[in-house]
Amino acid sequence: MKLIRHLLPDPLFPQGCVLTIGNFDGVHAGHGMILNALREQANKMNLPMLVMCFEPQPIEYFRGADAPARISTARDKINLLSAVGVDALYLVRFDEQLASMSADDFVQLLTQQLHAKFVMIGDDFCFGKNRQGDFDYLKLVGKKCGFSVRQSTSYKIGNRRVSSTLIRHSLEKGELSQAATYLGRTYSMSGRVIHGHKRGRELGFPTANIKVRNRKTPLKGVFAVTISLESGGCFLGVANVGTRPSIEETESVLLEVHLFDFDDDLYGQRVSVDFIEKLRDEKKFNSLDHLTQQITDDAEQARIYFNHQLTSQKA
Question: In 155-259, which ranges are continuous DSSP H helix?
Answer without folding.
Answer: 164-172, 176-183, 199-202
